[in-house]
Amino acid sequence: EIYSILLCITSMSAFKINTVPTQPIAGQKPGTSGLRKKVKVFMEGHYLHNFVQASLDILPQDKLKGSTLVLGGDGRYFNKQALQIIIKICAANGVAKLFVGQNGIFSTPAVSAIIRRRHAFGAFILTASHNPGGPENDFGIKYNISNGGPAPESVTNAIYDRTTTITELKMADIPDIDLSVIGKKNWEGFEVEVIDSVDDYLQLLREVFDFSQIKALFDRPDFKFLFDSMGGVTGVYTRRIFHGVFGVPMECLLNSEPSEDFMGLHPDPNLTYAADLVKKMYSGDYDFGCASDGDGDRNMILGRKFFVNPSDSVALIAANAQAIPYFKGGLKGIARSMPTSAALDRVAEKLKLGFYEVPTGWKFFGNLMDAGQLSVCGEESFGTGSDHIREKDGIWAVLAWLSLVAHRNSGAGKFITVEDIVNEHWATYGRNFYSRYDFEEVSAEKADEMMAHIIKQIADGSLVGKSFGDGYVVAKADNFEYTDPIDKSVSKNQGLRLLFQEGSRIIFRLSGTGSAGATIRVYFDAYESKNIQQDPQVALRPLIDIAMQVSKLKEFTGRTDPTVIT
Length: 566
Known about the structure:
26 strands; 33% helix
């Protein structure tokens, strides 16, 4: 009892705030989802400190003082040290309370859920998402706002501007906190509460889905399942949800122990980097396979010897929303990022739903959700989600697909597979053949030169009306610009588009999620209502050839083959 009282008295003591001189560090402009650099960059001097202090500086100070923030990350290398630094800066800047995930672990979707359920002012999320981790690889940080979503461009631009003028930091003189123990640590005017990483998120998922229906699917002897967490944060959640709730054997939860270097894997759930899962699924021994990325917001869905393209995935979820109790009142609207295939457009048209095309970046969906105009949305980059939170959500997408499969197999009879469901969808709506080519770690200078070459052709009007044979005539060429229908903000330069008269599209973008060099992404989208069983690479070959011709990608970059094909 004496020890506890003394501990309580000590823990409620005041702390000293140190003002630390600093100076601006170049290159702290956030990309589409936060600031990402090599971990060694973040570990140098005040690189991390400056970004966190700048983020707090630009927030309304009357709301920041006495506020509650959420803090956690995907467990990658440098997470542990970064958490302690951020705790000290938050304490010194008047934050009253921090909810921190046990061991500093939170998936990005879980952070969004906690912000909303606990009415927090915002959050710092430590992640470089699907980028590799470890001492030689990547680290990242982003700030989420009170709706649970990523900070909009107005906020990230303000953060960047502040990093260019910052001259001092505020740091609380408090000891490092043991984040492995759930509980509270108090000082005068400041509290850190370490909470279970899964509880809030799992409670929300139970409200969204019919867990008993999904459990019945897992109980079938003819249903075999695999989930690859790729060494990322999702492993904490898959063990609690899929093993603990649904009874999935642990051996079916692959790479489910979070690792600072993601077990040496590149935690990007696609056909290239999740090769072991793909191999197992194409062996024909499993009925449903899925994977998630480093921070748990992306997903890949596979059936037995069958890959579900992310663009098709969101379209199928929207078309079958009645399988999910959360949508029992119907969908408010649906949306996709501009580079995502037009498969979702056809669902919107047939079901007479409101439809939106937005730039790449989940933050663009948030305003529509907050205005009650959007229920389901997705990006071709393996991001799918709904308005239950304000981030894309890998486990949500997996549970949505399991709900769909369970719903279709609720009666007796032959098992209806993932492939069956997709083929039925194509028979109803037609098929958008779609592929994305990623050319990773290209010289940034050469990538910019290539994009400038395309922009010149768009500006001088030489592409419009040009025929490339096989019926491909350019109807429109532009640099996509988006006016938010809610707040009327304008986002320019969101991707170079070639739109053809018969409806096909080619899109060129430089990725905003890399940490080194540039990633050139080229997207191909072509609709077919009858011959729907072609190989996508064969169906899209004319568009691929046109893209290489127009961009002169090989001439500018020296690359002939993409690093990743989706």
